[in-house]
Amino acid sequence: MFAKNLKKNLAVLIIGLLILSFIYNHNLFRKLYNIFIINYETRLTEKYGYCFRESVGFLRMLKKKYKFNFNPLIINYDDSVTSSGWSIYDNLNQTDNSHKILLNYTKNLSLRFKPLNKIFYSNDTVRHSNGISNIVFDLKDKHRIINFKIKIYRKTYNKENIIYEENFQKLVQNNQIIPIEFKTKKINSIYKPTFIEISYLREDDIEKINGIILNLDHEYNLRDLTIIEKFNNCYYVK
Amino acid sequence: MTEIINIIIQILFLLFIFSFPIILLETNTESKNSPFSLIDKLSINIIFIINILFFTSILNINSKYIFYLFVILTILLYFFNFRKFNLKNIKINYYFLIPLSFVFLIAIDIAHELYFEWDTQVHWYLKALNFFQDQKFDNLKSFDVAEHPHLGAYIWSFFWKFPLNSFEYLGRITYVFIYVLSIFSITECLKVRAYEKIIFAVLLISLTYTYEIFSGLQDVLLFSLILITAKFSYYFFEKKFVLNHLQLIIILLGTANIICWVKNEGIFYAFFLLFCFFITNNLILKNKIALITGSLIIIFLRIFIFNFYNTELNPGYFQFDRTLNFEFLLILEKIKTITFYLIIYLTQNPIYLLTIPILIYISFKYPQKNITKFVIYFLILNFFFIYFTYIFMSTETELLVRSSMKRLIFQTSGFYFLAIIILINNYAQLFNNKLLYKHKIRKY
Predict the structure, then answer these.
(1) What is the Cα–Cα distance from B46 to A65, expressed in whole angstroms?
(2) Full DSSP string of chain A
(3) Which helix (H) or strand (E) holds B273?
(4) Interface contact A18-B111, CB threshold 8 A
(5) Do A15 and B115 touch (CB under 8 A)?
(6) Does the beta-carbon distance from A47 to B193 stay under 8 Å?
(7) pLDDT at position A77, please?
């Protein structure tokens, strides 16, 4: 009988300890306290940011302040998160794309390429570009003649999806802005790296190029829009 | 303080709603005639109610009528059974307090974290919001992935709206309730003492719980429903339930239907489960017919609703000309990528690390029982499914694998708890037999 009780008490003790360790591991007392003292909206803004990452705080402030009776177009320039439209979306409203909310807006959209064997690659991502504006070569020398074909592409199973391809004959100065003005949406991708290939370039030639910068056009340019509300890099525009 | 009170009310409401209909139709929950435990009855009620919710969602019946109907029926059943309850004999079920406290603890975590995963932000939340704002089933077509099933989101919206109509996370507490219940349910299969079952359940929760699984993703629902299916399938291999085979088949079909409507991959899991179940059991003709007919109805219902609402497949995922373009070298490359990531993600998942070696051990150590075959067949089909899914998707395999394989592996992982149960039950049986043998020798 004593042994049985002892076993039972020991089991109760183990269960208690396991529950306590669960509470401790997930910091549940602290979280309970936070729920008591911090309201839902503040906690939500803390999680998603006011004007960074999802910027839900800014969106909810706008919705409250302007009492939207439409769903504005929401564009988030932070490629690591979603557009955040879900946070103020209303099924009962129509979508109105003339009202735009630009979150984490960057003035200059660009992709930076580094040399890799005989090509250049970039892990930078872009979602809201309208095309290529110009190209800049970061050279080791003051200038260099580039007289070959330039190809910008992405790869899917070793198949190249060409974004831009053009013959290039130019004496290029270091960090000189060379206009391209090529309209394309193919440059937008947040999943895959982009490559630049300069045909027939020898390895020692490639070594003399530190990197390439591709400056891109904005799909939504602030210069063409009226700013209604602004907080840091977050804008409500029309 | 308001939020904590809301959470408590929500949990009590879930208990109240999920006590309908089976628990209330019986005069005594501890009825000796019924082979099902309290947790089984709650699971059956959940399966019943979710199936009802499924039909109301596709028939576009306003959820408030369903809510009123549930509440009125539950109150009436409580009222009519009130005289039959012997208040003096009512005992607090301490065993059941532990799962309830876990539901509360996890609800606290959810209320604090609030964060949605990527897929929740772009798909699942919008679907839930659609139903929360009383929009019709057709309206789902206005969102990105209309071909993704809606039932999980509908459950979320229903319990977000009722009874309190306040914070969205109150709807997600239903997922927690089903998850905790499914884990405590599977531990009931263990032939050990009650407190040992509790220890096992608490360990399983500690092993599987992270906030991410409740961040609005539907994978935890699949995990829990597969676990409930595993539990009721296990009963088939028990002599105690010989007389309840038809009831069990109906329960399994009810769960299979829900699994099909939670996520697209659920269709495959449901049929893998039913198929493995069919080939590892010697069913009588009546049960075979019931199982096959039920399975066919589930398939046709899915196809019918898909066609009725003109749901179109997302061209980004399903480009059949590219998907069915059999290039041998490409397939080899994909298999290499899938295998590499499969090994990585399997080693990251503690359930597989624990259960797969156990499954291998029991397959060789003990003579193979039908239940062991059931688990092994499902494992084989599951692995085939993982390979086929990624091989025949048009999106680049590595991207897809890295973003989804971890979740895909998690969905079915609970099923392999059966391996631990088989081991413990066999071991416990052998151990008891040895003790009995020693006792007999002494007595002799």
Answers:
(1) 42
(2) -HHHHHHHHHHHHHHHHHHHHHHHHTTHHHHHHHHHHS-HHHHHHHHH-SSSTT-HHHHHHHHHHHT-SEEEEEEE--TTS---GGGT--TTSEEEEEEEEEES--S-EEEEEEEETTEEEE---BSSEEEEEEEEEEESSSEEEEEEEEEEEEEETTEEEEEEEEEEEEEEETT-EEEEEEE-STT-BSSS-EEEEETT--HHHHHTEEEEEEEEEESS-GGGS-EEEEETTEEEE-
(3) helix B265-280
(4) no
(5) no
(6) no
(7) 94
- So what's the pLDDT on residue B129? 96
Q: Within 13 Å, how many C-alpha atoms sit on residue B382's CB side?
A: 26
Question: So what's the ipTM on this one?
Answer: 0.90
Question: For residue A190, what pLDDT is reported?
Answer: 84
Best CA proximity match to B398, nearest among A191, A238, A151, A42: A191
Residues of A in contact with B105 (CB under 8 A): 19, 22-23, 26, 28
A22:B109 CB<8 A: no
Interface contact A90-B133, CB threshold 8 A? yes
pLDDT for the residue B62: 93
DSSP state of B211: G
* Count of residues in chain B: 444
Listed as ranges, residues in chain B with pLDDT below 50 are 29, 444
DSSP-assigned letter for residue B116? P
CB atoms within 10 A of CB B116: 23
- Cross-chain CB nearest to B199 (options A18, A43, A92): A18
Backbone angles phi, psi at B128, to 5 degrees: -65, -40
CA B376 to chain A, closest CA, distance in angstroms equals 31
| DSSP code of residue B83 | G
Buried b or exposed e, range B323-339, using 16+ CB within 10 angstroms: eeeeeeeeeeebeebbe
Whether residue A36 and residue B4 make contact (CB cut-off 8 A), yes or no, is yes
Extract the tokens encoding B207: 């092993």
Report the predicted TM-score, pTM, of the whole model to 2 decimal places: 0.91
* Interface residue ranges in chain A relative to chain B, Cβ cutoff 8 Å: 8, 11-12, 14-15, 18-19, 21-23, 25-26, 28, 31-32, 34-36, 40, 43-44, 47-48, 54, 81-82, 84, 86, 89-92, 156-157, 191-192
Q: What is the side-by-side order of every strand in the sheet holding A94-103?
A: A70-76, A94-103, A234-237, A227-231
Among B130, B192, B195, pick the best mutation site for testing chain A contact (most A Cβ within 10 A): B195
